[in-house]
């Protein structure tokens, strides 16, 4: 198995090494035979070479089974095209999975009393290939347009993915389609395609307009299990969902295509804190945990989860969670916990 490692820009360079240290531990201890393939892409590379990502980089990524990715700075300059969007498109990573599942103990740490962790367990399934991210744009001085593309094919594809997830052992067989069909008539195609697909798979399906869903997911998160939505709505709702997690630095994600899987924290390169060594590495580490789950390494995923929860319990956390520990100190603590729990045969029952 080949795993590309993209640190990217800003705090991507700080959080990914902490996740890689855990990957190295398991890979070396259990002889997994994972070949790590470092790939340098991003804004830093653009500044240095004039190109943020090359065709060769894409070829290398296509030769890998999985990719662990930090974050990339996307500047607001028409000549700069998002590297992340190019990778998603070229590898056809059409399903972006963003779980909203709080780490056990986080509400206690943050003194959140009006909410129960057990009430929050939803997965946002974001259509990742079209919508307002179609790339079809006409940019002018007086008028600029971006075409929002909804196709039946992509809608059915993402609905099938979300329905299969909802029907899975740990879910409640419930799917909510989030859309804006009252205004965007194109969303009727998305809504109808999702409903039909879910029904054909025996999944209980309902729908919500995106504006009230944004309110509802914070007010009554217990109502939601798996949520499927279009590209930009999924982007925005997943950052909003991180409020329920306690920090944007705790939100992991996975992007799946038919051939590859790509794991990344939901957050960006955070230029405001980059270089200070205080970024929360947990979103990156939990993204690695999602990679372990995808690999069928359930026990290792469980060990990582427990180790992250132990850091929360012992208050070994970065400033976003009210702590004073550095990225590296938190990463080192989680790795040492992983080793300790592994040696003590934890998670065997899972
Ligand atoms: P951001 O997620 O980088 O940061 C938003 C806020 O959250 C900042 O105050 C930041 O300090 C904080 N934050 C983010 N991650 C954190 C962490 N792990 N620990 C502690 N605090 C954390 O969003 P932004 O500021 O809007 O974007 C910055 C750059 O990142 C932009 O160029 C944007 O295009 C890019 N971006 C990239 C990705 C990606 O590559 N996946 C995702 C989002 C944004
Ligand atoms: C994300 C990011 C990206 C997106 C940007 C950086 C292109 O915000 O992964 O959530 O909009 O999808
Ligand atoms: Mn985003």
Summarize this structure as a short list of keywords or feature phrases.
2 domains; 10-stranded mixed beta sheet; alpha/beta; binds nicotinamide-adenine-dinucleotide; 12 strands; binds manganese (II) ion; IsoPropMal-DH-like_dom; binds 3-isopropylmalic acid; Isopropylmalate Dehydrogenase; 350 residues; two-stranded antiparallel sheet; 42% helix; 12 helices
How much is the average pLDDT?
97
Overall number of domains = 2
* Rg (C-alpha, Å): 20 Å
Question: How many extended strands?
Answer: 12
**Biggest sheet: strands, sense, closure?**
10 strands, mixed
Spatially, the strands of the biggest sheet line up as 2-1-3-12-11-4-5-10-8-9
Globular, elongated, flat, extended or rod-shaped: what is the shape? globular
- Ligand names: nicotinamide-adenine-dinucleotide, 3-isopropylmalic acid, manganese (II) ion
Stretches where pLDDT is under 50 for at least 5 consecutive residues are: none
The first-to-last residue Cα distance is: 24 Å
- The CATH architecture of the largest domain comes to 3-Layer(aba) Sandwich
Structural class: alpha/beta
CATH topology of the largest domain: Isopropylmalate Dehydrogenase
Q: What is the CATH class of the largest domain?
A: Alpha Beta
The tally of helices reads: 12
Domain Isopropylmalate dehydrogenase-like: 2-334
Enzyme class: oxidoreductase
Protein name: 3-isopropylmalate dehydrogenase
GO molecular function: 3-isopropylmalate dehydrogenase activity; magnesium ion binding; NAD binding
């Amino acid at each position: 198995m080949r795993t590309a490692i993209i640190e990217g820009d800003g705090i991507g360079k700080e959080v990914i090494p902490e996740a890689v240290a855990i990957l190295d531990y398991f890979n070396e201890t259990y002889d997994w035979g994972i070949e790590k393939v470092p790939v340098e892409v991003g804004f830093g590379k653009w500044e240095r070479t004039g190109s943020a990502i090359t065709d060769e980089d894409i070829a290398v990524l296509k030769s890998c089974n999985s990719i662990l990715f930090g974050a990339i700075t996307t500047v607001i300059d028409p000549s700069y095209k998002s590297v992340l969007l190019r990778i998603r498109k070229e590898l056809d990573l059409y399903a972006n999975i963003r779980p909203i599942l709080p780490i056990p103990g986080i509400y206690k740490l943050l003194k959140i009393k009006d909410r129960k962790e057990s009430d929050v367990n939803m997965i946002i399934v974001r259509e990742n290939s079209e919508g307002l991210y179609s790339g079809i744009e006409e940019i002018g001085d007086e008028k600029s347009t971006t075409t929002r593309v909804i196709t039946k094919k992509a809608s059915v594809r993402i609905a099938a993915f979300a329905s299969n997830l909802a029907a899975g052992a740990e879910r409640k067989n419930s799917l909510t389609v989030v859309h804006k069909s009252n205004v965007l008539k194109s969303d009727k195609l998305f809504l109808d395609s999702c409903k039909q697909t879910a029904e054909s798979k025996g999944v209980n399906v309902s729908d919500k307009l995106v504006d009230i869903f944004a309110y509802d997911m914070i007010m009554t998160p217990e109502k939601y299990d798996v949520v499927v939505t279009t590209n930009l709505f999924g982007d925005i709702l997943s950052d909003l969902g991180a409020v329920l997690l306690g920090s944007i630095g705790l939100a992991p994600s996975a992007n799946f295509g038919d051939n590859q899987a790509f794991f990344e924290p939901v957050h960006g390169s955070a230029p405001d804190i980059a270089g200070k060594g205080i970024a929360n590495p947990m979103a990156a580490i939990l993204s690695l945990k999602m990679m372990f789950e995808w690999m069928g390494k359930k026990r290792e995923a469980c060990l990582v989860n427990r180790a992250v929860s132990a850091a929360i319990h012992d208050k070994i956390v970065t400033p976003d969670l009210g702590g004073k520990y550095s990225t590296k100190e938190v990463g080192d603590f989680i790795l040492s916990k992983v080793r300790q729990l592994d040696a003590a045969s934890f998670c065997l029952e899972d």
